[in-house]
Design brief:
The protein contains 11 helices and 9 strands. Helix content is about 35%, strand content about 15%. The structure holds N-carbamoyl-L-aspartate.
Amino acid sequence: MMQDFSQLDANGRLRHLITLEGLDPALIRELIERARGYLCRPGELPPRGDDLRGWTVANLFAEPSTRTRASFELAALRLGADAVNLDVMLSSRVKGESIIDTIYTLQAMQVDVFVIRDAQPGIIEFVARHVAGHVSVISGGEAHISHPTQGLLDALTIQLHTGGFRDLVVTIVGDIRHSRVARSAHRALAALGVGELRLVAPEDMMPEPDEFAGARRFRSFDEGIELADVVMMLRIQRERIAGAAPTDVDHYHALYGLTAARLARARAQAIVMHPGPMNRGVEISSEVADGPQSVIREQVSNGVAMRMAILAQIAESRRRRAP
Ligand code: NCD
């Protein structure tokens, strides 16, 4: 029988981070607070720490990544760790090595933290069940299922701009059905008590009815964006839509693209978010992406801070567990 698995240690602190499912809202708030301590203004030298001094962090990404991978590497380096990036598609896995053998190989090089992105559901928890007792595993994105660090950095970004969650209307737009970003945003925002979550998508990009509990669903973008405080745009996840992705991108843009005219229907101070990578002219116009309400590049900066906060809490957990 499989042993029960918990991503938390005996004190309820993060040992791994695989999912936001079931995380105590107080822990989420604490990570947001901690991440705020790692923020810096553009042009300033970034904050550093030595929480991970002597550690080694390995990024194992089996799907493309720019932001998540680079920000985990920078977060590790800025906390004093060594960092190694393994492009799984160029590794021995393509020669038939199992992921567990790859993990044991790197563990033999004294890797302390694995950051894993994979298209196979369940594999990140599977690895976490197999690593040595002092080793931690963090999800850098699991299939369409979850992207916990993105959910947390998005919550941080929203809090920095709005102050709180209770009275907010957050509208997520696009290919929600295939999006791990949307699923983790929903988890984080629900835990933080968001006022109203709206989903806007065409029929074939709407999630199943039993998902996204509590969210209101809209087919019409113009209705779903009405007086929203936060508008989160998503890319069409073509890699997860075998053959059925929209081919007429102009038509998609006309119905589900965020333009300045559409944004004018949201609250005047509404913020525009996008996890990246953006497809300009498809889900978002350049005018909006580069406009005054866009916080898209701030999300990237906040991502480094949030990943530092997560690594620092994991380091604390290990120090407390050490004999
Ligand atoms: C996202 C992802 O990989 O899920 N990117 C990211 O991590 N910032 C979103 C996407 O690929 O559309």
